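Lab meeting notes turned into a lecture example. A postdoc, R.K., suggested we walk through two folding results consecutively so the class can see how the record format repeats. The first protein's sequence and structure tokens come next.
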Amino acid sequence: MALTDITRTEIQQAVREFDRLGRDDFLARYGFRRARRYLLCHAGRYYDSKAITGVAHGFLPGERPLTAADFSGGADHAVRHLRRLGYAVADDVPEPVLACGELVARVSRLRVNRSSGCPALFQPITLLWALSRALRGERRLLPWPETEQKLGGLLRRHGLRGERPRPDYPVAALHRGGLWELQGLTAPAPAAHGDTELRRWFTEQQPVGGLTKSAYDLLRHSADTRLAVIDTLLCTFFEDLDYEPLLTDLGLYDETELLRDAGEEADQDGSTARPETWLLAAAHYERLCHIVEHREGEQRARHATRPRRNPLRSGSARRAVLRRSQGRCENPACAGQPADVTDAGQPILEVDHVVDLGLGGRDHPSQMVALCPNCHAVKTRGSTRESLRTVLLRVAAERHVAALAAVGSAAQARGLPAPAPASVAGIAGKPSPANSCDTVRS
């Protein structure tokens, strides 16, 4: 088939796979290099146009992805076809494309000072501060005196390993690492070490700075990305530290805020570019379960004797269940959920722990279900609640395994590494007579 056989449907599938894998893994998987000139513009993000076109060809019936040597990505070939399909293709974009997986990988590889034997928290605290600002929709770029005041105070209050309140160090380090933009410079930023030279440079330059636009937009609009980045920072740099006061100060210990989305982009044909396709939803589900299990492992490592409220883990678990439900009540005997939706246009569903946490249940999607208000009421106080809990516990375990299996099936179909097989060991259990009424209005 020719490039002209590729439609918007195949392009959208390739874009979703790009988002799922991240730019570097996507290009490596399909044998493309980073675009030197032409980038596809979609929903406020940029994608390597030739690679997207080549991979899109593989979504045509009976066809395979094209390699870089199979066709031309120039203005008279792939670019022309993308523009005919109604896409904007930029000739030059100064900022690199950034997807969730790539941002998380870059955060996990931060080069921080470890001279004390433990990682210094300058950069992690700075990123959490910037993430909280993106969540609230505050200005991306701030004048240096304002950054110095706000970030310096945060470091002073929460430097859990003795970090001094000097924002110049983490800002310079993040700038060199490609995560922080500095504007208005007349001289290159120095290396992020030493003292006098670095302070002098910031005093003289007075830069305006903040997260790069792609990182800010991703954290602003994607709750999944926020959860993944916060989890990566906490697991990588805050081991054995009580980070709750820091997250509370930043407004990141609020489950409602963490899960809030800033809205979804509309495609050019007027439809909503929603992430809940079965493939992408399954990948998100797997990532959210990974966050939940990280937090459970951390609790076990600390020999916790009782469940500790952790909105990051709980929020990830609830969001995973809502994605898994695909907007429908998970009670197989549901008589019909309300046709009404929330102000955001989402189904009215309540996420429930089938087994109460205080009686040994897990804050994990394998023991949680999404219920309509009617079914939730029956499960809470109905005369048939005991038998319903037994059914729901089985349904939760089965749907959890099925959701993870979907990731493996999709990976196999596309020639990608499959995730480790899901285990149901410890998933099912005897439902308790108590009930947890944790509600999420998605």
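The second example is placed directly after the first for contrast:
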Amino acid sequence: MKFQIVDAFTDTLFGGNPAGVVVIPDGKDYPEDEVMRRTAAELRYSETAFVKQEEDGVFRTRYFTPAAEVELCGHATIGSAYALMRFGMAQPGTVIRYETLAGAIDIVLREDSILMDMADPQAYGTIEGEEAVKELYRIMGIEAEGQGVWEKDPAVYLKPEKISTGLIDIMLPVKDEDELERINPDFPALTELSRRYDVVGVHAFTVNGKDGFIHARNFAPLYDIDEEAATGTSNGALAYYLYRYGILQPDTVNTVIQGEKMERPSRIATQIVLQDEQPKIRVGGLAVTLAEGEIDI
């Protein structure tokens, strides 16, 4: 089977978020689930995409972390779509479709970027109660007081909320970049909290970036991912969250900076498009290949 290691959401090697990509040969079916999980663990990246072409322009895609299968992974989607172009299985200037456990996803392939439609955004409720909010921030290693401020409009107070564009994460607002950098989670406690809230993890962010961009950090220890350098699904969810608060506007392409603490800075583009007055979320970026070859499974 062909494989690649791809850095997604960057145009520079050793930036962005790396993902494994395994292409299932024509006429072959997926290996057993445990084999794919162990393959993902052997590759040692947070997610590996296993891609099987169903028909021209349509690919069934499954995603495995070293611990378990997940329904969707944004950076592995961007990375695997780039790999398909490298392998000659898809062409720039076209739209391909991924059939995933989270539903069908259309992906626009361009020479300068790859943009993917996220699953329909859904809100699953804010974290309610003073003690619950304090517990959440305490587990993340910071205090809850004063974290939901938006400097452009102090009347807007952001609250921790569960949002999904394919995977459910807790959106965790913090007041500035310095506070974002100070986050130091209690990972065993965060694992239990993620299980209790039935979420993949916590996506911490600030809209008060010194450079005018949104800055974010993502933590998912429940799936053996302490921190990720770029997360497409989580930033898609963040775009929807900020749209609901009136911070992001339709059609504008916004930039999220992630991975700085890990010394793998990533730039993730997000866009909200209204279709029949309903918001659709797109997430995209660039990708580069680190390695490719054959894998025997």
